[in-house]
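Researcher: Go.
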Amino acid sequence: MSWKDKAAVYLPEVEKFLQEIVKEGEGELSRHYGMMRYHMGWADENLRPAVASTGKRLRPLLCLLSCEALGGEWREAIPAAAALELVHNFSLVHDDIQDRSPFRRHRPTVWKLWGEALAINVGDALLILACKALGELPLSKFKECCQILNEACLMLTEGQFLDLTFEKREKVSLEEYMEMIKRKTAALMAASAQMGAVIATEERGVIERLRRFGESLGMAFQVQDDILGLWGDEAVTGKPVADDLRQRKKTLPIIYAMEREPFLQSLLAGAEWGEKEVTEALEIINRCGAREFTENQALSFYRKALEELESLGLDSEAVQALKELASFIVGREY
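Model: Structure:
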């Protein structure tokens, strides 16, 4: 079975669990839960039941595949998988506010529709519901999974702090950027694989290898995102070409180019910033080989992830699906 075949089996069960946790609510509270359900892709702007994009659900999938790869019963990991997805979505709701993003998954964001105050509350509620979901785990696994998820959440806030701080700095080093994405993106993917492993086995070395696998995969995911943010096909990604550049974000290819072309730094910091400047900046980035460098970085993290997986010496459907999922992440176009 491919990873997509596995996803077709796993994810409906995760979705069912999620919808039970994020209930519809009664009376006036139906609006509160309706906003959560809107963000999760189950309601429209009028808070009526609807089907919209729910995202890739990669973190639940990574958790369940990791569990099964080590011989565990994947259904036992569903509460952990749901908790991971809820934490991911809590972070997205808050990120959208902090980044002033008007759209998420081709729809208006929660804060854009209902204001910042209610959106903050929606994000907080999703985080608490993640803790509630973890309570459905067997008691023997609950404490460790709770510790793993709490640590990942703390790292998320650290990564977001660094990311927001970098926006106000003219220069960010490649090392600083890598440290930021290790927290903001890779930490939760590392926790996803690690929690799946914890539910399947007591072997510390095996659990640590799965954690490192997830972390490297998370790094590859973010670096690939940086590629798509500059050179992605608008028809596929739903975002304009060079969207990250228009927002003057300091992503990996942009930082790499800034270190080699000092003029790019002054261009990005200039008061004038229109399509002419965006085109000029993109030409500089392309000229200095930033795309090739970034693609090589994504491949390097992908290979590190595979090395951790292959070191287990296992060859099952779930292991093969994990390898395929890693390949999809580094080669995706959306």
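Model: The chain has one domain: 3-331.
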